[in-house]
Amino acid sequence: MIIKNIGCLVTCAGAYPKKKDDLKDAGIIENGYIIIQDKTIVDVGSGERYKKYLKDDEQVIDAQGKTITPGLIDSHTHVVYAGSREFELPLKLKNMQYIDILNAGGGILSTVSNTRKASMEELEQGTKERLDLMLAHGTTTVESKSGYALDFENEIKMLKVNSDLNKKHPMDIVSTYLGAHAVPNEFKKNREGYIKLIIEKVIPYVKEHNLADFVDCFCEKGVFTIEESRKILKTAQALGLKAKIHVDEIESIGGAELSGEIKAVSAEHLVAASDEGIKAMAENNVVAVLLPTTSFYLMLNKFARARKMIEEGVAVALATDCNPGTSPTESLQSTMTFACFGLKMMPEEIINAMTINAACAVGREKEIGSIEKGKKADIAIFDAKNLNYLMYHFGVNAIDTVIKNGAIVVREGKTVY
Ligand code: NIG
Ligand code: FE
C-alpha cells in the first residue's frame, strides 16, 4: 500500500519516551508518503520518491489535504463493563460528590453488580461495540482494565473478554488486572480478606494463565491506602507482572511518590499530585498518564499540572479513561480538546502523548506509536489540513480512514473490517 501526497504527516518519530522539549517535536513531514508491505511500514519520506514503489497491483491512497498520525493509543480505559450510569448525571449536577455516590452503593459498585450478572457473551458484545467506536475515532491499541467484578470468577471473566476480543477484533488490547478498584460489598467488614484474595489467589492465577501484562490499584483516600497499594503491586512485580497505579485523582495521599518508589511503569490521573510526587516520577521514569476528560466530568475545577510535569522531565501520556462513571467517551479526539484547554498542552505535545508516549505507558514502544520504518502499520488519516486544525475544530469525528496492521478497517468514518 502506498499513501502519497500527505498534506501533514505527523510521524512522532525519534527517541522515546518524549520529555521536555522533545515532546514539542512531533516529527512533522510536509508532502509525505508512507509505504506499507503486509503489516509493516517499510519506508517513510517526502516528495516523489514513493514512485519507485509503484507497480500495477499497489493500493494507492491520495492523502492530499489530510493529516496522518500514528494509530492512536488509549493507554488507560475501563472499556469492559455492563450497563450504564446516566442516572448519576442529575445527582452529580445537584452536587453529590463522586465518593459519596460510591459509598451509597452507586458508582463503581453499581457497575460491579451489572458486570457480575452479565454473561461472557453479553459483556463481549457491549465491549465490542465500544471498541468499534474507538477504532472509528482513530484508536488502534487500547489498554483495558478489569475491576468491575471484584470477585475471582467474574474478574477472570473480564480478563478473558480482553484476551478473546484481542483475537477477534482488529484492536490490539493490553490487559490489566485491577482487582483493587473498590472493596466489594461482601468484604466491607473484612478489607484484609479482600486484599488476601487479590494477593494469594487472583494475581497468581492471572500470571499463570497469562491473562494480564499489568496489575493496577486505585490508590485514593477512601479507596485503597498507600500501604495496601504497595503490598498488592509488589506482589504482582515479584511474579513478573508490571505495575500501573491510579493515584491522586481527587486528593493527594502520596500516590505519585509511591509510583516512583516501586518504579511503576505508569501513574495515572495525578490531578492532585504533589511536587515531591512529580519529582519521584521524573527520577524513576514513571510515565504520567493524564485523563483530562475525567477532571472535566467529575467537575473537579482542576486539571493535572501537565506543564509542571513536562518542565520537571516527566514523560506525559494521555488517555480517555473510557468508563461508565467518570468518562463515558470512546474518543481520544475528546481527550485532545481537554488536553488543550484543561492541561494547556500544545498540539505537538498532545499527539506525542497519545501515540509514542502512550506506547511506553503500555510497554509496546518498540512495535507501535510512531510512523517509522519497521513499525507496525497502524495509521490514522484525519480530514484536517494540519495538526492545529485537528485540535481546533472540536466535537466532531475527523477520521477519514484507519489502517490497522496494514489493512483498512475504517473508511469515511465507518468500520469496514
Ligand atoms: O478512572 N478511578 C477509578 N476508576 C475510574 C472510575 C470508575 C467508575 O466510576 O466507574 C476512573 O475514574
Ligand atoms: Fe481509571
From TrEMBL:
Tell me the superkingdom of the source: Bacteria
For this protein, the record's SUPFAM superfamilies field holds:
Composite domain of metallo-dependent hydrolases, Metallo-dependent hydrolases
Q: Where in the cell is it found?
A: Cytoplasm
Statement: the UniProt record of this protein carries the keyword Cytoplasm: yes
Q: Spell out the molecular function terms from Gene Ontology.
A: imidazolonepropionase activity; iron ion binding; zinc ion binding
Q: Where is the Amidohydrolase-related domain?
A: 67-409
- Chain residues that bind Zn(2+): H76, H78, H246, D321
Q: Could you tell me what this protein does?
A: Catalyzes the hydrolytic cleavage of the carbon-nitrogen bond in imidazolone-5-propanoate to yield N-formimidoyl-L-glutamate. It is the third step in the universal histidine degradation pathway.
Name of this protein: Imidazolonepropionase
Natural source organism: Clostridium muellerianum
